[in-house]
């Protein structure tokens, strides 16, 4: 039997040498082929390709995908979460529960992110220790096919580009505060919580050996927490049970436990006690490769007109349970990129950057808020009505502060055009005479707009951000992947200026809308004057 042991040892060493010799480019090619094969198997309509700038992105393979048709079928046990059972899970939860001050004063969802990130980090480390194999119990998968799938998913997540604010350095955040004018309390990082969680877990000898000295360098764990935060799907606990095909009664947990690992008898009560039946955050591999979508059109209320969302259905096919992803609109163009949006409330530039780590040029859902101290008490009476007419204020009470949210959507263009046409019916002589008599009102509107602009405090000109974006992009082009740390720094500086530019565009557009409204208000009054007998 000695020769079998020798053969196994030889194969392991050969595998390790092969893995060490594989270049990043070769690894990328391998993962690209692997995920293309996965989409070919699990999706009747989607293909996937890799782009150096975008990373993985999905494209429409069929000429037509009808509304609510299944885009991709994922085995339901591939949905993993912090609720699942895994090596060290019980020790992690019980150790955190022992620190009552930490547990009672911490958001459960934040703890869920951290425990989930720990789970993925430890699994990734075990794969490296095992020469690219997934040891038994690390993620709870027993079939070789499932293990092979997850080895590649974890490799992809390990090298995936994450740019949400959790992974930003102190210098990069300082750049954000300086140019985008956001404050540290708006970022609300969980890094300090993560450090405390790690210190608590290191009181346990076994956990301390597994986690290592991450109190001095948290970059690895922060990366995995960001993978969870930027790719997770959240469901209420009861919906999570429903999607697993379970009835609502507590007795149905028996069925759930038999089929689904996190609710084994020994861990059921611990899970319920620790997570308090709050929202379940879970990852669906492959679906996270379908890009985030930024709607391209907004209606007059600033709502997305081409919002694409998805729903998850549980179906059975040939005795296997799948989670089926369906989008809420049809796709009619072969070769187009297929993407979706999480929800209507996550489209604002800073929110996208903070939670998901990306920005969108010319984001139509940019919003700027500003406050006029002491209300509008400083505006002369003759200007208050003009300010109210052109939409630069909602005058409810002149005392106290007034806050406003401005968006990029404009006023009704048809109305403005109609007023313009009506105004042009007058003769040149009448227009000159009317303009002379209404000059005081013209000045009143212009003064109101001047006050409006000064209240917005738009800082530098938009050209400043455009020049910075162009300059940093040129530096990135010259680097060509030679220094990932410097690339990340440049990429995040570009994001800062894209967010800032979006804000300034809101200011500029609202100035234009206000001016147009003021001018047309005057024209409307002039038309009334010219039409009077």
TrEMBL record:
Keyword Protein biosynthesis: no
Signal peptide coordinates: 1-21
GO molecular function annotations of the record: protein-lysine N-methyltransferase activity
Database matches in Gene3D superfamilies: set domain protein methyltransferase, domain 1
Keyword check for Signal: yes
Keyword terms of this UniProt record: Signal
Protein name as it appears in the record: Uncharacterized protein
Organism: Halteria grandinella
Lineage, highest ranks first: Eukaryota, Sar, Alveolata, Ciliophora, Intramacronucleata
């Amino acid at each position: 039997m000695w020769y079998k042991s020798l053969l196994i040892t030889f194969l392991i060493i050969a595998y390790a040498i092969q893995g060490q010799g594989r270049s990043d480019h070769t690894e990328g090619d391998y993962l690209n082929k692997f995920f293309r094969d996965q989409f070919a198997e699990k999706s009747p309509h989607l293909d996937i390709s890799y782009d150096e700038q975008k990373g993985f992105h999905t494209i429409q393979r069929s000429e037509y995908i009808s509304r609510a048709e299944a885009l991709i079928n994922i085995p339901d046990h591939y949905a993993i979460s912090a609720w699942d059972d895994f090596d060290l899970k019980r020790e992690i939860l019980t150790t955190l529960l022992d620190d009552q001050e930490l547990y009672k004063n911490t958001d459960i969802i934040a703890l869920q992110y951290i425990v989930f990130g720990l789970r993925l980090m430890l699994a990734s480390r075990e794969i490296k220790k095992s020469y690219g194999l997934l040891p038994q119990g690390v993620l709870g998968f027993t079939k070789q096919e499932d293990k092979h799938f997850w080895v590649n998913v974890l490799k992809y997540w390990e090298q995936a580009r994450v740019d949400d604010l959790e992974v930003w350095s102190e210098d990069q955040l300082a750049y954000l505060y300086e140019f985008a004018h956001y404050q540290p309390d708006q970022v609300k990082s969980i890094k300090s919580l993560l450090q405390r969680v790690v210190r608590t877990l290191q009181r346990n000898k076994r956990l301390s050996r597994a986690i290592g000295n991450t109190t001095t360098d948290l970059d690895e764990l922060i990366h995995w927490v960001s993978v969870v935060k930027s790719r997770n799907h959240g469901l209420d606990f009861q919906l999570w049970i429903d999607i697993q095909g379970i009835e609502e009664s507590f007795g149905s947990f028996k069925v759930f436990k038999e089929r689904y690992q996190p609710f084994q008898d020994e861990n059921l009560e611990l899970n319920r006690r620790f997570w308090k039946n709050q929202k379940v955050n879970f990852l669906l591999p492959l679906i996270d490769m379908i890009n985030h979508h930024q709607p391209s059109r907004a209606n007059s209320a600033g709502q997305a007109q081409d919002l694409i969302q998805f729903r998850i259905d549980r179906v059975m096919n040939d005795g296997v349970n799948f989670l089926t992803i369906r989008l809420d609109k049809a796709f009619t163009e072969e070769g187009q990129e297929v993407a979706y949006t999480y929800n209507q409330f996550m489209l604002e530039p800073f929110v996208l950057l903070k939670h998901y780590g990306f920005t969108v040029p010319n984001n139509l859902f940019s919003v700027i808020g500003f406050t006029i101290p002491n209300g509008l008490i400083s505006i002369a009476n003759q200007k208050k009505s003009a300010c109210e007419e052109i939409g630069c204020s909602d005058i409810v009470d002149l005392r106290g502060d007034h806050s406003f949210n401005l968006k990029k959507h404009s006023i009704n263009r048809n109305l403005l055009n109609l007023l313009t046409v009506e105004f042009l019916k007058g003769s040149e002589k009448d227009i000159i005479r009317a303009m002379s008599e209404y000059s005081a009102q013209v000045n009143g509107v212009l003064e109101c707009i001047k006050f409006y602009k000064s209240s917005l405090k738009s800082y530098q000109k938009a050209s400043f951000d455009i020049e910075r974006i162009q300059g940093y992009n040129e530096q990135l082009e010259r680097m060509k992947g030679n220094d990932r740390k410097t690339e990340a720094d440049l990429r995040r500086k570009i994001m800062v200026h894209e967010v800032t530019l979006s804000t300034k565009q809101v200011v500029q557009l609202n100035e234009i809308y206000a001016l147009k409204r003021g001018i047309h208000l005057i024209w409307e009054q002039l038309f009334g004057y010219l039409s009077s007998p």
